[in-house]
Backbone:
């Protein structure tokens, strides 16, 4: 079972397909859950503490806004852990404030720099594209270590 | 700042989405309750949220998927159900993430079609070619001006 980073990191479709074809999807929920279940000082609306931007320094320079570094404290360890990645480009649900947008760019850059196998796709817009989308994901996942189970 | 004491430590929460012509979220919930074995189940408009020990949740998810394999979709959730930081009962509107789910929910029928077709083709036909990544047409400048005018009027 390989660890596969998914982008958009909240994608239902990618998360389901990766798990369905026998691998572990790495998405935002895993990083969020870790923080939600860790006791400490409450800092609404998330369990993000002043420590996070410092941890984010590992992934982004100090000149980068703390919002981006804070977010990278969640995504950075997941990217490090990933053995492969599936990216949906032009995903219109992957938008947000400037912090989210810049973090998304940094995530894609980090993934492409990491040298892990990456599959890049676009969301399907009809049934024929749906078939090709699922087939491409299945084929990519089957080629990963310990892949091939459906 | 208040001391934060987390709930449901050591558990996992997963969303279960059902987009099926033959099964409603209510029916899925009833069948899931029968197989739950101590896993906390919350029924939602799109399916379920299940929370519990990782092994128990995995077992339940496997069972749930078997009800309608190509129409049931699962993903992880960071927050447990009813968390005041995300529950819309406290926020007074749609919770964060709702729009993403809504967007992807519309595409699930294409994924279902893909899963069904690949199951059918298994072994006897060549797999379809991966989708070509064509360049999207750019927004026409006249259309942009129309959009701006519409917004301003």
Residues:
């Amino acid at each position: 079972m390989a660890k596969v980073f998914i982008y958009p990191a909240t994608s239902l479709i990618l998360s389901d397909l990766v798990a369905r074809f026998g691998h572990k999807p790495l998405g935002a929920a895993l990083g969020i859950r870790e923080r939600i279940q860790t006791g400490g000082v409450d800092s609404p609306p998330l369990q993000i503490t002043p420590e996070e931007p410092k941890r984010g320094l590992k992934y982004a320079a100090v000149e980068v806004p703390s919002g981006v570094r804070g977010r990278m404290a969640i995504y950075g360890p997941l990217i490090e852990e990933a053995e492969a990645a599936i990216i949906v480009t032009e995903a219109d649900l992957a938008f947000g404030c400037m912090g989210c947008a810049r973090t998304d760019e940094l995530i894609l850059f980090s993934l492409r720099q990491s040298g892990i196998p990456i599959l890049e796709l676009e969301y399907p817009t009809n049934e024929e594209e749906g078939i090709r989308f699922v087939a491409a994901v299945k084929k990519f996942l089957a080629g990963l270590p310990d892949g091939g189970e459906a | 700042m208040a001391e934060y004491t987390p709930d449901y430590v050591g558990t996992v929460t997963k969303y279960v989405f059902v987009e099926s012509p033959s099964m409603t979220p209510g029916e899925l919930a009833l069948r899931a309750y029968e197989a739950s074995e101590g896993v906390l189940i919350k029924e939602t408009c799109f399916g379920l949220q299940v929370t519990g020990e990782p092994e128990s949740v995995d077992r339940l998810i496997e069972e749930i998927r078997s009800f309608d394999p190509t129409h049931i979709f699962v993903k992880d959730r960071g927050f447990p159900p009813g968390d005041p930081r995300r529950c819309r009962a406290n926020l007074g509107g749609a919770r964060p993430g709702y729009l993403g789910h809504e967007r992807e929910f519309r595409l699930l029928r294409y994924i279902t079609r893909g899963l069904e077709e690949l199951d059918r083709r298994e072994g006897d036909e060549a797999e379809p070619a991966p989708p070509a990544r064509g360049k999207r047409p750019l927004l026409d400048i006249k259309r942009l001006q129309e959009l701006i005018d519409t917004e301003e009027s």
Chain A touches chain B through 53 residues (CB under 8 Å). The mean pLDDT of chain A is 89. The longest strand of chain A covers residues 3-7. Strands of chain A lie at 3-7, 24-26, 40-41, 84-88, 118-121.
